[in-house]
């Protein structure tokens, strides 16, 4: 494991978005407004229910967030794909946090269940990413994880077999 902290605030996440945290050409988060978390409260390479690593992060919900204006006028809802993207972002962040090299990209997800919605009256999303596999070989760097998103403590999104890889090309 690289020698990084186990918590990150918004400034740290913005450094990652600028390529300053893990170095040029390595795992990078998107900048706002596509950055889907405000802080990482816990991260590991051996924690979680499978002992393969985990990430816990939070995203503060405000009624003036950009997506509420356009999805949908008169019926504002956060698009579910943004919650999924937040889970992918955190999966790739964990790979960079491990010190593994390369730029991150999503490979897919096995199963997605959306059972609730994020409306402007919600206060906070909590993301949970639990790795089932983390592989680094000469030819492949990849994480496979299950995830869930809670809105104010209520599970609203669940995913299985989410895959993110790092590539140096």
Indicate the structural class.
alpha+beta
Distance between the termini: 23 Å
Question: How many strands, what sense, and barrel or not for the largest sheet?
Answer: 7 strands, antiparallel
Strand proportion, as a percent range, falls in 35-45%
Under the CATH scheme, which architecture would be assigned? Roll
How many domains comprise the coordinates? 1
Spans of at least 5 consecutive residues with low confidence: none
* CATH topology grouping: Thiol Ester Dehydrase, Chain A
CATH superfamily: Hotdog Thioesterase
- Count of discrete alpha- or pi-helical segments spanning 4 or more residues: 3
Dominant shape:
globular
Determine the fraction of residues in helical runs and give it as a percent range: 10-25%
Please tally the β strands and state the result.
7
Q: What letter string, H or E per element, gives the SSE order?
A: HEEHHEEEEE
Radius of gyration: 15 Å
What's this entry about, in short?
The protein has 169 residues and is α+β, with helices and mostly antiparallel strands. The protein has 3 helices and 7 strands; from the N terminus they run H-E-E-H-H-E-E-E-E-E. Belongs to the thioester dehydratase family. FabA subfamily.
Q: Could you explain the architecture of this structure?
A:
The protein has 169 residues and is α+β, with helices and mostly antiparallel strands. It has one domain (10-167): Thiol Ester Dehydrase, Chain A. The protein has helices at residues 10-17, 66-70, 80-97; strands spanning 39-44, 54-60, 103-108, 111-114, 124-136, 141-151, 154-167. Strands 1, 2, 3, 4, 5, 6 and 7 form a 7-stranded antiparallel β-sheet that branches.
């Amino acid at each position: 494991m690289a020698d990084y902290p186990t918590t990150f605030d918004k400034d740290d996440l913005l450094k990652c978005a600028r390529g300053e945290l893990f170095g040029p050409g390595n795992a990078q988060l998107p900048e706002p407004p596509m950055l889907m978390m405000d802080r990482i409260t816990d991260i590991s390479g051996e924690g979680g229910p499978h002992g393969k690593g985990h990430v816990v992060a939070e995203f503060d919900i405000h009624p003036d967030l950009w997506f509420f204006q356009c999805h949908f006028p008169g019926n504002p809802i956060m698009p579910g794909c943004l919650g999924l993207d937040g889970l992918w972002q955190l999966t790739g962040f964990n790979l960079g946090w491990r010190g593994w090299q390369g730029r991150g990209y999503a490979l897919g997800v096995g199963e997605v269940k959306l059972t609730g919605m994020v409306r402007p009256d919600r206060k906070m999303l909590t993301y949970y990413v639990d790795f089932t596999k983390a592989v680094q070989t000469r030819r492949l760097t990849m994480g496979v994880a299950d995830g869930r998103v809670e809105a104010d403590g209520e599970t609203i999104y669940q995913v299985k077999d989410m895959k993110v890889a790092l590539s140096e090309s």
